[in-house]
Each structure stands twice: as C-alpha cells, then as structure tokens.
From TrEMBL:
Species this chain originates from: Nocardioides deserti
Lineage: Bacteria, Bacillati, Actinomycetota, Actinomycetes, Propionibacteriales
Protein name, UniProt field: TetR/AcrR family transcriptional regulator
Taxonomy, superkingdom: Bacteria
Stored InterPro entries: Homeodomain-like_sf, HTH-type_TetR-like_transc_reg, HTH_TetR, Tet_transcr_reg_TetR-rel_C_sf
SUPFAM superfamilies on file: Homeodomain-like, Tetracyclin repressor-like, C-terminal domain
Length: 228
C-alpha cells in the first residue's frame, strides 16, 4: 500500500509539472502572438501565468528552452496544416504546391512562428546543446522533422511517378524550409530592393501573394530541374 501511495503521489506531481509547463508555454505563445518574440521577457511570461520567474526556471533551463518548446507548439499546428493540404492530392506537382502554399499561409498568419524559428536557426548546434536540455532539443527536432517529412514525402512521391528528379529529397526539404522562412520575412517587410542604375538603389513593394507564388514556383522548379 505504501508503494502504491508513493507511486500515486509521484504520478500526481508529474502531472502537475506537465500541466504547469504547458501553462507556461501557452502563456509564452500568447505573448509571442500579441507582442512578437523580441518583446516577450521571462518576467512577462511569469506574470501572465501568475507565478514568479523563479518557478519558470524550475521547469525550463532558460529563455531559449521556453522559446524552443513554444516553437514546437507552432510546428505541431503547421504539421497538421501541411497534412491537411496534401490529403487527397494525388498529382505530385499539385501536392508539393499545396504543401508549400500551406506553409506560406501558416507563416503569414503566425509571424511569431517565423521569428521564433529564425531566432533558433541563428544558434549553432553547440550553443543549443548548452542552453537547451536534451529532452527539449529532442522535442524540437521531432517537431521540425515531422513538418519536413511532409515535404520529403511529397518529393519522394514525385520521384516515384517520374515528375521530379531529386537525388536527396531530405536535403531539398530542409532547403525549402529554411528559404521559406526567409521569404516569409520578406513578405512581412513588403519591401524589394534593387538597382535602378549601377550603384543607385531603389525600393519597391512586394506582396505576400508574390512571395507565395515565387516559393511555389521555385519549389517545383528545384524538384523538376535540380541544379547539377
């Protein structure tokens, strides 16, 4: 009986800890969506949950880990959006176009996702290992890979049908993800810089629709006619 009570208390404590962690991540996500990534501070997160910052640090190794696990919540949603976009689309080019379009639409609707993803991509692997626990890094990797799998599966399908000629689908999927994040930042900025004449810069405008079209067209081109 004593062992059962002890196990029960441990299970209850673990459940409370998981619930608190989810509460902190949800609060961080709300702050990201309302203020942006750069303006979200640990004190703000703690206040939003109704706890002090010391309790936040009991659950997470630091700000980078909170950001990483908040990104996981975005990635879980993104994976669902990509799966839904690909569902029932048989033609390989159409499936890839649908997935890239869904990625762009999600990024446009959730600017904080783009900021959070880019902020973590600027860190080296060594830095992330120093600042984020192994379990959190595993969850982050699983979140990213589950989204990339939607792209690589579409590319592999295209190779099987003869529509695509891609030697390394995983590499192209990673490239499309990284370049897509950069293009989404361009869509948000809405500014296109070019030369009006040698040495004379000019600024034009670019719309989200143009960025979406460019990313879809580029993905199809890279899958159909990859560089030598």
């Amino acid at each position: 009986m004593t062992t059962e009570r002890t196990d029960g208390r441990r299970s209850a404590a673990a459940a409370r800890r998981r619930a608190r962690e989810q509460e902190i991540i949800a609060a961080t996500r709300r702050l990201f969506d309302e203020r942006g990534v750069r303006d979200a501070q640990i004190d703000d997160i703690a206040t939003a949950v109704g706890i002090n910052r010391a309790i936040v640090y009991r659950h997470f190794s630091g700000k980078e880990e909170i950001f990483a696990l908040t990104l996981v919540s975005y990635l879980d949603e993104l994976r669902g959006a990509l799966e839904q976009a690909a569902d029932g689309v048989d033609a390989a080019p159409d499936r890839l176009a649908a997935i890239v379009t869904a990625f762009v639409d999600y990024g446009l609707a959730h600017p904080a996702f783009v900021d959070c993803a880019q902020a973590l991509m600027r860190r080296t692997g060594t830095e992330l290992l120093d600042e984020i626990s192994e379990s959190a890094l595993f969850r982050l990797g699983r979140g990213i890979s589950s989204c990339l799998r939607q792209l690589s599966t579409a590319l592999e399908h295209g190779v099987e049908t003869g529509d695509f000629h891609v030697a390394e689908p995983a590499l192209l999927a990673n490239t499309l993800y990284a370049s897509g994040l950069g293009a989404l930042q361009l869509a948000r900025l809405g500014i296109l810089v070019e030369e009006a004449a040698p040495g004379v810069p000019t600024v034009g405008q670019i719309s989200p629709d143009q960025v979406r079209h460019y990313l879809v067209t580029s993905a199809l081109a890279l899958a159909t006619h990859p560089p030598a």
